[in-house]
Amino acid sequence: MTILKINDFTIGNDEPMTLMGGVNVLESESVVMAVAEKFAEATKSLNINWIFKGSFDKANRSSISSFRGPGLEEGLRMLEKVKSEFSVPVITDIHEPNQADSVAKVCDVIQIPAFLCRQTDLVVAAAKTKKIIQFKKPQFLSAPEMKNVIEKCNHAGNEDIILCERGNSFGYNNLVVDMLNFQIMKDLDVPVIFDVTHSLQLPGGLGNAAGGRREYLLPLAKAALSQGIAGLFIESHPDPDSAKCDGPCAISTDEIPAVLSRLSALDDFIKNQDKNI
Which of 96, 208, 243, 274 is the most buried (most CB within 10 A)? Predict the structure, then answer.
C-alpha cells in the first residue's frame, strides 16, 4: 500500500490518522488564525498528524452573490502565514491550470475539487508541480471510475496521489456515503481521506446555498474510520452560523478537542485491531 510523506509524518491507510483540518474559505485572517490555533492545540495534545486546509476561491458557489474568497494572492499569503506560524503543511484547491505553479510554491498538497477532477488540463498542470495531489471523488462518479483520474495524473508524471470521498448524489439536494467506496478506492493503492464535512451537505438545500447536517459529523466520521482509512477532512469556524460558506456543515472551534479526541482513539483502536489479525 502506498505511503506518502510530508515533513516528519506519513500518510497511508494503515498509518496513524492524518487530519486535514481548517476552514472552508479563507474569509478573514482573524478567522483563519483562530481556527488554525484551535486545530494546532488539539492535534499537538493528541499527537495527530495535521494539514491545514483553506480555500482562496470557492469558484462553484450556488449563487452569484455568494462570497468566494480573498483570491489567489491574498489567500496564499494567509496560508503561508499559517504554515510559518504553526509549522504545519497546508492544502488548498485550484480551479484553473494557471494557478498550479503559484500554489505549489506555498502548499504541500494541491487539491482538485470534485466537480473538476475530470478536467484533463487541470489534472496535468497540478501533476507537473510534483506536489502531492488530492482528488475529491465527484458526487456523480462511482469509486471504480477514480482509476481513470489516477491514470491521468500518473501519465503526467506524478504518482503521489490521495483520493478523498465526499459522498454521492442521492436524488435532489441530498448526499449519501457508500462505505464500500472506501474499500474500492483503497484497492487502487492510494491513501484515502474522508471529507466528512462536505458529505454532510444538502446541496442547494437553502435555495441559494448548500444546507448541512453538522450534528451528524461524529457518527459519519466514526463509520468511515471503521474502514481503516488514511484520515479525515474536517472544517471548522468560530461561529458556524455566521460562516460565509458551508456553515451548516462546519463544527464550532470549541468542539475541536472533544471531537478529535474521540476520533483519534477510534482510529488507534481500528488500526491496532487490524495489526493483530
Answer: 243
Question: What does DSSP say about strands 192-195 and 231-237: parallel, antiparallel, or unpaired?
Answer: parallel
Concerning whether 274 is annotated as a catalytic residue, the answer is no
**pLDDT at residue 211 in the model:** 64
Catalytically annotated residue among 38, 58, 83, 131: 58
Give the model confidence (pLDDT) of 194-243 as tens digits: 999 988 876 665 555 556 677 889 999 999 999 999 999 999 999 888 87
137 is catalytic: no
Nine-digit cell string for 1: 500500500
Q: What is the DSSP letter of 202?
A: E
CB-CB contact of 222 with 80 (8 Å): no
Question: One of 13, 24, 158, 168 is an active-site residue; which one?
Answer: 24
Annotated catalytic residue, options 57, 160, 246, 267: 246
Burial of 257 (0-12, 13-18, 19+ CB in 10 A): middle
CATH code assigned to 4-275: 3.20.20.70
What is the grid cell recorded at 157?
508524471
246: annotated active-site residue: yes
Domain residue spans of the chain: 4-275
> Measuring CA to CA, which residue among 219, 248, 222, 220 is closest to residue 235?
248
Cα 262 to Cα 274: distance, rounded to the nearest angstrom: 19
Cβ neighbourhood burial of 157 (10 Å; 0-12, 13-18, 19+): exposed
Q: The pTM is what?
A: 0.92
